[in-house]
Amino acid sequence: MTRMSNSGISLIPENPDKVSWVVDRVREAFVEHLIGDCGADPLTAEETATEICNRELTISRSETKTNFLSIAREGEPVGVIWKTERMISDRKTWHLLYIETFAPHRNKGIAEAAMIELIRLAKQDGVTEITLNVSPRNTSASSLYEKLGFGRQSGGYGLRL
Predict the structure, then answer these.
(1) Separation of alpha carbons 156 and 134, rounded Å
(2) What is the CATH number of domain 9-160?
(3) Dihedral of alpha carbons 145, 7, 93, 35, sign
(4) pTM for the full model?
(5) I want to staple 60 with a disulfide (CB 3.0 to 4.6 A). Which of 16, 115, 134, 153 is the partner?
(6) Any idea where the domains of the chain sit in the sequence?
(7) Neighbouring C-alpha atoms within 13 Å toward the C-beta of 123
(8) What is d(CA 58, CA 52) in angstroms, rounded to the nearest whole number?
């Protein structure tokens, strides 16, 4: 899956055990979303986020194809993507659980370049749709996904390929 795009961005598969720190970041972001956007109480939010992250990590570890991708720019790690692959009505779909450009690398076009490369890889792999959720407060991410052709759908965004 590793290939450098014209922008110098590469998506590099990672072993789930190597990047388990991502799960902690995802859990924290999901807890924040459940409290801030959904009005959940902190304890329920923590339990729900932990359960979902543990389930997805178990699935990631049980599959031969990794669901974690490091975003690298000219060989330097600058972000991470956590995705799941599912078959829905005989269609292969990818759901993006978490996308982050690390703080020192934000606002440099990295997320856009990474998403363009991810879409290219999805098409190459026979994926028919990419979906993701985004906090309503994250207007910059929403703008990016809309710019890339993702449409709003229940609970997030989707892109038919």
Answers:
(1) 6
(2) 3.40.630.30
(3) negative
(4) 0.79
(5) 16
(6) 9-160
(7) 8
(8) 10
